[in-house]
Amino acid sequence: MPLYRDEAVVLRTHKLGEADRIVTMLSRYHGQIRAVAKGVRRTASKFGARLEPFMVVDVQLFEGKNLDTVSQVETIGAYGREIIGDYATFTAANAMVEAAEKLTSEESSPQQYILLIGALRSLSLAEHDPSLTLDSYLLRALSLAGWAPNFDTCVRCGEPGPHSAVAMQLGGTICETCRQGGAAVLGADTARLLGALLSGDWAVAEDYGQNTRSAASGIVAAYSQWHIERGLKSLEHVERG
């Protein structure tokens, strides 16, 4: 039974039997891992609290046929307490880990791992508005997965923007000449905010007011639901400002 070790962030857990849990994690080098954590629901468990959603851990596992088994866990980033203490932060984090689970697989995806733990750390420290952090994370995670949106030029003809509409199925903004039915209306400020969120330019992103932020969040949600198979159920519960 091969033994291996990796860094991982806990995405979700399921109860198993009377005392165990199945833990789904995104690791740095082994992609998604589903493992049994035995006895973690007992009060005497040594590492039960370390295997809660949003925790970043150094984990050692035994490789199994269907599920691996956790043998050791050490905490790297304890973000759970701060995240669950605020509803807006908690709902944003839930949407992030759901997106991460759907955008990754058992293949190694270190960039997705690094992006997720950076976003969760930012949430736990309340560095930015949770809604902005979520929208920035979703745009960048989708980009890493191969669905990079384009908010700078027309996705059909390449004419420089900003443009007044966005076509979800085409992956970005579209000019008036190329615009067809079904494109969503997009204000110039909203396009600029989306570009800032995609690039991580927080100085620009935080200059915009709530109306522009809400419009950008609607575009990000629609773009995510279009490209992520079966959509993101957690987005329904995200608290927007």
Structural account:
The protein is of the alpha+beta class and 241 residues long. The chain folds into two domains: 3-78, OB fold (Dihydrolipoamide Acetyltransferase, E2P) (Beta Barrel); 82-237, Recombination protein O, C-terminal domain (de novo design (two linked rop proteins)). The protein has seven helices and eight strands. It has helices at 80-84, 87-103, 110-124, 130-144, 188-199, 202-205, 210-227, and strands at 3-16, 20-27, 32-37, 55-62, 68-78, 165-167, 172-174, 184-185. The strands form two sheets. A five-stranded mixed barrel has the order 1-2-3-5-4. The protein has a three-stranded antiparallel beta sheet with strand order 7-6-8, with no helix packed on it. Strand 6 and strand 7 form a beta hairpin. Helix 3 packs antiparallel against helix 4 (130-144). The longest helix has 18 residues, at 210-227.
Query: In total, how many beta strands?
Result: 8
Radius of gyration: 20 Å
Q: What would you call the shape?
A: elongated
Please report which band the strand proportion falls in: under 5%, 5-15%, 15-25%, 25-35%, 35-45% or over 45%: 15-25%
User: Helicity level, as a percent range?
Assistant: 25-40%
Listing every helix as H and every strand as E from the N terminus to the C terminus, the arrangement reads EEEEEHHHHEEEHHH
Mean pLDDT: 92
* Domains (count): 2
The CATH class of the largest domain = Mainly Alpha
Q: How are strands sequenced across the largest beta sheet? A: 1-2-3-5-4
| Major β-sheet profile | 5 strands, mixed, barrel
Q: Give the quaternary arrangement of the chains.
A: single chain
CATH topology of the largest domain: de novo design (two linked rop proteins)
CATH superfamily of the largest domain: Recombination protein O, C-terminal domain
Please give the alpha-carbon distance between the first and last residues. Answer: 50 Å
Poorly predicted tracts of residues: none
Number of helices: 7
